[in-house]
Amino acid sequence: xxxxxxxxxxxxxxxxxxxxxxxxxxxxxxxxxxxxxxxxxxxxxxxxxxxxxxxxxxxxxxxxxxxxxxxxxxxxxxxxxxxxxxxxxxxxxxxxxxxxxxxxxxxxxxxxxxxxxxxxxxxxxxxxxxxxxxxxxxxxxxxxxxxxxxxxxxxxxxxxxxxxxxxxxxxxxxxxxxxxxxxxxxxxxxxxxxxxxxxxxxxxxxxxxxxxxxxxxxxxxxxxxxxxxxxxxxxxxxxx
Amino acid sequence: xxxxxxxxxxxxxxxxxxxxxxxxxxxxxxxxxxxxxxxxxxxxxxxxxxxxxxxxxxxxxxxxxxxxxxxxxxxxxxxxxxxxxxxxxxxxxxxxxxxxxxxxxxxxxxxxxxxxxxxxxxxxxxxxxxxxxxxxxxxxxxxxxxxxxxxxxxxxxxxxxxxxxxxxxxxxxxxxxxxxxxxxxxxxxxxxxxxxxxxxxxxxxxxxxxxxxxxxxxxxxxxxxxxxxxxxxxxxxxxxxxxxxxxxxxxxxxxxxxxxxxxxxxxxxxxxxxxxxxxxxxxxxxxxxxxxxxxxxxxxxxxxxxxx
Lengths: 240, 308
Prior knowledge:
The structure holds two protein chains of two kinds.
Chain A: E1 2-12, E2 18-29, E3 34-38, H1 45-53, E4 60-65, E5 68-69, H2 75-81, E6 83-86, H3 98-106, H4 112-121, H5 126-129, H6 140-154, E7 158-162, H7 170-186, E8 190-194, H8 198-202, E9 206-211, E10 214-220, H9 221-229
Parallel strand pairs in A: 3-8, 3-9, 6-7, 7-8
Antiparallel strand pairs in A: 1-2, 1-4, 4-5, 9-10
Helix pairs in contact in A: 3-6, 4-6
Chain B: H1 3-13, E1 22-27, E2 30-35, E3 40-44, E4 50-55, E5 60-70, E6 76-85, E7 90-101, E8 107-117, E9 122-133, E10 141-143, E11 146-151, E12 156-165, E13 169-178, E14 184-193, E15 198-207, E16 212-222, E17 227-236, E18 240-250, E19 255-264, E20 269-278, H2 282-290, H3 295-306
Parallel strand pairs in B: 1-5, 4-6, 5-7, 6-8, 7-9, 8-10, 8-11, 9-12, 10-13, 11-13, 12-14, 13-15, 14-16, 15-17, 16-18, 17-19, 18-20
Antiparallel strand pairs in B: 1-2, 3-4
């Protein structure tokens, strides 16, 4: 179980003033749940994800993972206790190959056959990719799928995905939905996805809506999605 | 050869004892052993230290190893090696120099290699430079390789040059003339400096032949207080094409300067240069840490891949 207790995150803006990006957020995410986090742009979704995986450290509050205080754990330590993250914009490297990342993700020497299996799950013809550099020669959609294949390879208790649909074409998107459904059905895992996509929200168990750094709604999908689908103008979560 | 020399041989030429095919092993300024084949002849020079290597026209799929080992502290070795690669041949040449310094004196190897690549000949040249010191042996290790290349019509030369560790000071000077029509030069240079080391790399390429081409990629990493300079001067004197890429990572207090120059003396010369120097991108480290690597392990992975 992941629990956030009164988590706040402040930064100093360009005018040297303190700006609160996340305001006193408390959230409990039970095991085996598929949670979608949504809300208007600039509302703090990505920041919340980065606080959970350890890219940022909260200025106040506490994070508990299976009862263990992970608030001050480094990124590496959180990765080791079972937190994975798929970046919104996957990072590119000169000289690091797809196979290298898959091996690092799996945490052990990965055979070509195993790496291929992970890549096939996200719809990539693995043999064409395994020896390619993770650099600008791959398209945005290919990089996103490789990013998600790494989550499958890591197979950790909690997977956090930041807008997995961004930059993905329609055909790939349909396949990605299948990947998430499969991850959810087969794996006894927690998945936390930041998304604006109705189809992703639709397969979530619960939806969290964040606006201006605060949780404005957190409930079962069936309670929240109909409200969201009434359209931005009529949606109470998006109104001032 | 003693164990230290064998270890160095392994480092610079990936071989344990004597290699297959033609070879000339030079240890502490003298020829240690030599083997010639029906197609590859090796002759000692009479007027100066060094050897002439004569590869017969049409020689295919043969290799030549010419490693140099220095294990005496304070030795200054200068050698001139001339390679005559016969028309239509296709060979691999593995050179390399390793210094093991067990004392407080400066050990130095200056190798001047001249390649005459014949018509339609192909040569792959692999050169690795490596240095190591005994614990508490402060002697400096210096290497100044000069590589002079002339390529005739349809000839092709691929150079894979590497200096990863243990060389305190180096001037790596490469001068090439692509004389003939369609001559091609490919260079993959990898360089890493650490501690207080300094390295200068100079590439000068003249493309005189119609349709000649050059593809030069240099990857460099400078750590600690080390310094590096990179100069490339690519001149197109005919219809030709070149691509130069100089990519460098700086860490700690290291400094790198890169001065690329491309000169087109013909309307149909198409010359490209790309240069980039910077520290390891923070997001790359963050990404690898989310996979469970520590910051140090992440840096090693990034540098290892970059210099792969």
